Amino acid sequence: MKVKIDKVLPIVWIVVFAIAFLIIVGRFLVIQITGEVAGVDINKLADEKRTNEYSIPAQRGTIYDRNSMPLVQEHTVYRLYAVLDEEYTSDPQTPRHVKDVEKTARQLAPVLDMDQSAIAETLNKGINEDRWQVEFGESGKELTQQQKEEIEDLQLPGLYFEEEAIRFYPNGMFASRTLGLTNKTDGLITGISGIESYYNEELTGVDGHISYQRDKFNVKLLDPHEIVQEPENGDNVILTLDQKIQTLLEDSMSEVVENYNPNRISAVVMNAKTGEILAMSNRPSYNPNNIGSVTNWFNDAISTPFEPGSTMKIFTLAAAIEEGVWNPAETFQSGSYKAGENISRIDDHNNGKGWGPITYLEGIQRSSNVAAAKLAYEKIGPEKFLEYLQAFDFDKLTGVDLSGEVAGVIQYNYAIEQITTSFGQGTTTTPIQLMKAATAIANEGKMLKPYIIKEIIDANTGKVLQEGQPEVVGEPISAETANEALEVLETVVTSENGTGFNRYKLDGYSLAGKTGTAQIPDPETRGYMYGRNNYVFSFLGMAPAEDPELIMYVSVKQPELKPSEPDSAPVSFIFNNVMENSLRYMNIETDQEKTKEIPIVQVPEWKNKTTKEVVKQFEAKGINPVVIGDGQNVVNVSVEAGSEVTSHQKTLILTDSPKMPDIKGWALRDIMLLQSLVGFKMDWSGEGYVISQSLQQGASISSNDTLTIELSSEVE
């Protein structure tokens, strides 16, 4: 029996192994034929395991000014990480992981501005936890190209970089509240305010993707089966903002902040003929590249309604003229006015003293509250006056293409509100609403919608997808009324009785406008604040007065005024400086130029010619050019060939050896022409014409230089 068992066992084992072998082979055959295990496609699984697939971020669209100067753009930064796994190194002679923790920490510390011990702790913790790689927190993110190159120059093994995109604002605080901010979540940049928010969908592109096969060390195979789907970048947005006018505004506002420490400033510059916003800014502001502490995120010019004060009298005046009840020679008793027994008395701004019996024309010039109240309440009538307020759209959003607009409210339930609205108290509005209403005064009765988008362009094809156009949104008054209102408002700055006399004036240009001194509501007393500085001082002006090209509004809240200073000082500094230089920059004819017959000539071709040839050609046409430098060949000219200029227009010829000319007596617009040709940086103070320059005549100049100039309205 024992012998039989000994003979049978080998046979049994052979059979068992044979069956197991057949099962295994059969299983292999089934897997080979079907390519599946437990319902899982093993070929697909293998591809997934050895395939890297990731998205290629689309570039967010660039925001430009009207002259294609970039204001906001995508900027590449770098995120640093360190590989710790020794298996990533295939050749010990060229390590690809961090070998020396202390050396790496010591040399990285000054570049990342981190403590050496903190870097070493991060690396050692990663090694102890058997991690493949580690990062360095906020200090290792958003590294600049320079920081990346400094780290690469250290030649430390195991350090690598990932590219990241951020929004970069090359001009810092420039129009920051208008341009807006973005937020980044999971690599996606999203607009949260301003243009960035309003046109977020257009600016955002469509990500692409790439896939390829790699080994376990994440190294691409020789035959990687790479598939690439290119991204579609976001559309580019071109604004109506003009960088030079905006810079004028920003610099002027910054100087007022430094000298007067106001609570807030808002200002807007608009093309009177189109409604295009050429500049818009607020204070306080912030640098979007380094936000720091921000107490107010709103764009006050469109988002913060307030009681405007006497600038509202512009529209009370226009309504009276349109209704035929304006008689500039008619007199009234100034000082105070009580419209009825149960209606509170209102006073003129000089504590109710007034100026005795004066004409309505003098009342507007002196900014008499009584004059405005009597015009609105007695002569026009409350119901009809409300119709004019609504016709000027003071109860509506302007529809400006910016996020966060808030409309003011017409407070008109009681008689006293109907009276105080006529001089800008009680009823609230925003600067952009005032600007929109003012276009009807400046544009022969046609009220224009303000807009800030010039074009939206497909970044991939260059096709114009959207184009801003002037849009007439109402005609609250006639052309005759508008022209008469301009004539009256011009006397506010030309008459000795005017509140703008000797305060608001432009060298060479006539000006029409209205001052404003608005009281500030006091939440504690439910009345108004008192004290010389507790007002919003403002001015709304249009120039040239007879046919305005530009409208500008400036308001300064609670500036710290010296006892000897007029309350208009901070407002007039901003307005006069920006308005005058903007008109000159835009080549708007001065009043003197309009009265002279100045010949217009066509600029000859100047490209690829010597300096002598070009100068000779220009002089033959009656153009006396300023030659920049002593080079033999012309590099650029401030006017295009074929364009038309006057013999009085300053024309600059840049040679291939540029030297600084004597610019004393030049206007700021001419300096800006020189800057655009050479590319140097520029700082200036004052207004008017150049009286001193930091780069002396005859010195070599280039784009690396900075020119500092001082301007004065009194040139020797």
UniProtKB/TrEMBL annotation:
This protein's UniProt keywords: Membrane, Transmembrane, Transmembrane helix
Record GO terms (molecular function): penicillin binding; serine-type D-Ala-D-Ala carboxypeptidase activity
Domain of life: Bacteria
Family assignment from sequence similarity: Belongs to the transpeptidase family.
E.C. designation(s): 3.4.16.4
Transmembrane stretches, start-end: 12-30
One GO cellular component term: plasma membrane
Catalytic activity: Preferential cleavage: (Ac)2-L-Lys-D-Ala-|-D-Ala. Also transpeptidation of peptidyl-alanyl moieties that are N-acyl substituents of D-alanine
Pathway: Cell wall biogenesis; peptidoglycan biosynthesis
CDD domains (UniProt xref): PASTA_Pbp2x-like_1, PASTA_Pbp2x-like_2
Cross-referenced InterPro entries: Beta-lactam/transpept (IPR050515), Beta-lactam/transpept-like (IPR012338), PASTA_dom (IPR005543), PBP_dimer (IPR005311), PBP_dimer_sf (IPR036138), PCN-bd_Tpept (IPR001460)
Major subcellular location class: membrane
Enzyme class, spelled out: hydrolase
Record GO biological process: cell wall organization; peptidoglycan biosynthetic process
Location of the protein in the cell: Membrane
Annotated ranges, domain PASTA: 656-713
Name of this protein: serine-type D-Ala-D-Ala carboxypeptidase
